[in-house]
């Protein structure tokens, strides 16, 4: 029998192999990421694995796909449910970018700590929003919804096997092999000709809308390895002649703790595609939609820490606007150094980041009572804190990656009121609850605090 985590690991590996064949620059990205990780491990030793073992980091990937309807999203949820992946977080990219990006998103991933350690594969999944009149007028919306209703992304056999794996949490080896073959094939780039006029109609609204609703299939949009030094990777990729986007999205590089998520990518490549003209003839053309992303993960921030992070982004925006001659990354670094704690211990003491807590094996044994405050327990050596890795995404960073790989801004009518989408709506659309990432981190942290309380013989720690 093949368990869900084994299915997940095999699917991630096969998807990576397939994408590498389709987009050779992705293979270069993986190779350079591995080289950087090996160099960081040699230089930093055990410290390099503070946010995950090198085996986990090396195997780690996240993918991105885009679908057009709630029905398609429900089917995707069934496929990822077979892999032990649940929808976590709601991201509204419509509000996070200046360009027209008419999608809302969630991320499917494992949620249990042990499952994450085995294989933390995630898929950032975006859903088109045809009901938003800022992007689609009534006529285009009707045409788009008709087009989407007439396509079938996933074969019934794949969905049946997915439901079985989800219910039984495993599959016999022959069925597991068949599931993997069908699942990987479902995300390959189709060779079916693209209706050129229809694609271009949607592309005038948004290149993302065209990528979703302008074709009769879906595909893996990008795959993302994890790297321990994203600035060094950016330099090495550029030295190899690969065109990267202009910036690294997310927090700046600085001397303090790494928090949340930093991302960058090489630019979307012009890929040969068959295009069908209005007279029915097929010609060769190129579409530019897929790219290679890379990420560096940091510590998960609490709600208070995230509020501080979001506030600091507005500070950086304001200062950068008043100092156009300054490098934005330098501005951000200065703001970070002024306002963020410079150590993990201070992050923990101020309850700005999530940690798992452990009674220190070399804690005081002289009969003294441990202090009641968490900060004092840390500073006096009673308790040690291990950072919880941020497993999720940042809407502004995701939108920044999408936007950096678009050919144009698209069109958006801000005189119209946007359609309302939220996590509750998305949960109903797919028939599965969109989980709150903060609640997942809090649950992990609180379980560790309860163990520490028991070991030290204390009242519950706040």
UniProtKB/TrEMBL annotation:
Ribosomal protein keyword on record: no
Keywords: Dioxygenase, Iron, Oxidoreductase
Domain of life per record: Bacteria
Cofactor(s) this protein requires: Fe(2+)
GO molecular function, one term: dioxygenase activity
EC identifiers of the protein: 1.13.11.93
Pfam families registered for this protein in UniProt: HGLS
PANTHER family, A to Z: 2-OXOADIPATE DIOXYGENASE_DECARBOXYLASE, PTHR39479
Family stated for the protein in its record: Belongs to the 2-oxoadipate dioxygenase/decarboxylase family.
Protein name per the record: 2-oxoadipate dioxygenase/decarboxylase
Upper classification of the organism: Bacteria, Bacillati, Actinomycetota, Actinomycetes, Kitasatosporales
């Amino acid at each position: 029998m093949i368990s869900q985590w084994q299915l997940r690991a095999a699917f991630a590996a096969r998807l990576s192999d397939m994408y590498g064949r389709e987009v050779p620059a992705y293979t270069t990205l993986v190779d350079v990421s591995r080289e950087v990780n090996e160099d960081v491990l040699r230089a930093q030793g055990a410290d390099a694995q503070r946010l995950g073992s090198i085996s986990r980091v090396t195997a780690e990937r996240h993918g991105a796909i885009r679908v057009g309807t709630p029905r398609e999203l429900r089917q995707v949820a069934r496929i990822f449910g077979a892999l032990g992946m649940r929808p976590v977080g709601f991201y509204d990219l419509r509000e996070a970018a200046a360009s027209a990006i008419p999608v809302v998103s969630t991320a499917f991933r494992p949620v249990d700590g042990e499952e994450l350690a085995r294989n933390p594969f995630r898929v950032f999944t975006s859903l088109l929003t045809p009901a938003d009149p800022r992007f689609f007028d009534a006529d285009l919306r009707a045409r788009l919804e008709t087009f989407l209703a007439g396509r079938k992304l996933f074969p019934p056999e794949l969905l049946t096997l997915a439901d079985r794996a989800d219910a039984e949490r495993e599959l016999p080896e022959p069925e597991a092999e068949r599931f993997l073959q069908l699942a990987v094939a479902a995300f390959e780039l189709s060779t079916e000709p693209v209706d050129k006029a229809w694609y271009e109609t949607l592309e005038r609204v948004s290149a993302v809308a065209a990528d979703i609703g302008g074709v009769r299939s879906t595909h893996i949009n990008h795959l993302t390895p994890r790297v321990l030094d994203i600035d060094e990777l950016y330099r090495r990729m550029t030295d190899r002649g690969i065109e990267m986007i202009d910036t690294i999205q997310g927090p700046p590089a600085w001397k303090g703790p790494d928090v949340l998520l930093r991302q960058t990518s090489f630019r979307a490549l012009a890929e040969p595609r068959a295009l069908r003209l209005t007279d029915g003839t097929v010609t060769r053309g190129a579409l530019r939609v897929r790219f290679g992303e890379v990420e560096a993960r940091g510590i998960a921030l609490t709600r208070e820490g995230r509020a501080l992070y979001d506030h600091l982004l507005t500070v950086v925006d304001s200062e950068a606007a008043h100092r156009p001659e300054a490098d934005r990354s330098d501005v951000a670094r200065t703001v970070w150094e002024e306002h963020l704690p410079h150590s993990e211990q201070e992050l923990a003491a101020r309850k700005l980041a999530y940690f798992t807590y452990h009674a220190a094996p070399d804690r005081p044994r002289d009969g003294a009572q441990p202090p009641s405050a968490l900060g004092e327990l840390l500073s006096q050596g009673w308790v040690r804190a291990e950072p919880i890795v941020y497993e999720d995404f940042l809407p502004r960073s995701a939108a920044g990656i999408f936007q950096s790989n678009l050919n144009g801004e698209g069109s958006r009518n801000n005189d119209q009121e946007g359609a309302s989408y939220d996590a509750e709506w998305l949960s109903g659309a797919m028939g599965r609850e969109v989980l709150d990432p903060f609640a997942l981190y809090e649950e992990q942290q609180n379980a560790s605090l309860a163990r520490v309380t028991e070991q030290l013989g204390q009242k519950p720690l706040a």
